[in-house]
Amino acid sequence: METRHNFGSKIGAVLASAGSAVGLGNVWRFPTEVGNNGGAAFIVVYLLCIAIIGIPVMMSEFLIGRHTHANTISAFAKLAPGKWWRIEGVAGVFVAFLILSYYIVISGWTLFYFVASVAGEMQADKDYSLVFNNFVSHPWLPVLTGAAFMGLTHFIIAKGVQSGIEKSSKMMMPMLLLIIGILVVCSFSMPGSSEGLRFLLKPDFSKLTASVILSAVGQAFFSLSLAMGCLCTYASYFRADTKLPKTAVGVSVIDTFVAILSGFIIFPAVFSVESVSVDAGPGLVFITLPNVFNIAFHHMPALGYIFSGFFYLLLLLAALTSAISLHESVTAYILEAFHLSRKTAAAAVSISCMVLGVACSLSFGAWSGLTLFGLNIFELFDFTASKIILPIGGIIICLFTGWYLDRKLVENELTNGGKLRFRLFRLYYFIIRYVAPFAIAAVFVQELLA
Ligand code: PFF
Questions:
Q1: Which residues does a 6 A CB cutoff place in the pocket of ligand 1?
Q2: d(C-alpha 233, C-alpha 65), whole Å
Q3: Cα(133)–Cα(138) distance, rounded to whole angstroms?
Q4: Which CATH number fits domain 10-449: 1.20.1300, 1.20.1180, 1.10.390, 1.10.4160?
Q5: Ligand 1 atom 12: the closest Cα is on which residue?
Q6: Using CA positions, which residue lies closest to atom 13 of ligand 1?
Q7: How much is the pTM?
Q8: Per-residue pLDDT tens digits for 340-398
C-alpha cells in the first residue's frame, strides 16, 4: 500500500480546499440563483447562511478528517467504531461519486465553449440557443468533451496529493483569481453596466420568500463543498499545525468572494445589453453570455475574443479544481480500503464515473425520454445528491460533532491541542448543536414538500 502524504504547506491546504469549493457552483450556479431569486436580497441571505451554517459545518468536516488522517468512510468508523455513524462516511463517498459523474458533463461543456472561444467560434452572429441545444444533444461530441475533462482530472489525481492536487491548485487558483480581476474590469467598462450593479447591490426584501431562503442554504452547501466527504478527505492531508478555524474562514471567504465577483462579471455585462434577460436559468452562461459577448463587443471584436476566452477558461479551471476534490474523495477510499496503488484506484474511479457520465450526457439527447418520476438521468442524479443525500449528510455531521463526539476532542482538534486560541469555540459549539441541524432540517423538509 502507498504511504499517506500530507499537503506540504499551509497555503497548499487552503488553496486546494478553496479549489474544491470554488467551482461551477460559483461561476455558473450562483449567478443563475441570484438571477432567479431577485438579486441583492438573495445575496444578503446567502451571506448569512455562509457565516452561520457554512463555516461551522466546514470546521466540523475539517476536524473529523484531520483527527483521523483517513478517508471519509474510515474516519467515521475510527471515531465511532461499530456504530451506525459510519453510514455518513459511506454516503459522503457515494454522493461524491454521483456528483462527479454529472459534474464532468457540464465541465465538458465548458471545455467545448473554451475551445470554441479560442477558435473564434463565439464571435459570429448566431442563434446561441440553437448552438447550445445542438451541442448538448449531439450523439457523441459532449461525451467526448466530458471524457477529455475526465482525462485531465485523472492525470492530476494519479500524480498524488503533493505533486498532483497541491501543485495544480497552487498554479490554478492564483490564475483563476487573476482572470476574475481582468473580467470584472472588462465588465464594468461596458456601457449601461450600472443597472447590473444596482441589481446586485440594492436589496428589495419584499422579494424574500421561504423558497428564496431555502435556495440560499442549498447553494451555500453546494458551493462550499460540504457534506460530500471532499473537505474531510482534504483535511486528512492537513498537517498538525494547520489552523482549522482560520482555514475554514479563509476558504469560505475566497469562495464567497469568487461567487460575488462572478455576479459582478455577469450582471453588468448582461444588463448592458437590453434584449437579454437575467433570469435565463442554467442557460445564462452558455446561451445568454455568448449573445452578450457578441452584441456588446460588436465594434470591438478583439475585446470580445479576449473576454469570452478568459471567461470560459475561468469556468474550466474552477470546474477542474472541484472535480479533482470529488475524485480524490472516492479514490482515497478505494486506495486505502482495497490496498491498491494510487494509479489503479484512480483508474477504477475514472472509468466507472465515465460510464455513468455517458448516461448523464445522453440524457440531454438520445436518452432524454428515459425518465423516472419525471426526471431524466442527469436530473435524477442531481436531485438524489443535492436535495436528499446532501442535506441529510449535513445534519448527520452536525449531530456527530455536536452530540456524539467528546467536546474535549472537538475543542482539542480546533485549537491544535490547546496551542491556539479559538475564542468563538462556544458559539461554534452552540451552532453545531442547536442551530445548524435544525436549519438544515427545515430546508430539507421544505424542499421535499415543494
Ligand atoms: N463546490 C463546488 C462548486 O461550487 O462548484 C462543487 C462541489 C465540489 C461540490 C466538490 C461538492 C464537492 F465535494
A1: 20-21, 23-26, 96, 99, 222-223, 225, 228, 230, 322, 325-326
A2: 6
A3: 8
A4: 1.10.4160
A5: 225
A6: 225
A7: 0.92
A8: 999 999 999 999 999 999 999 999 988 888 888 888 899 899 888 888 888 899 999 99
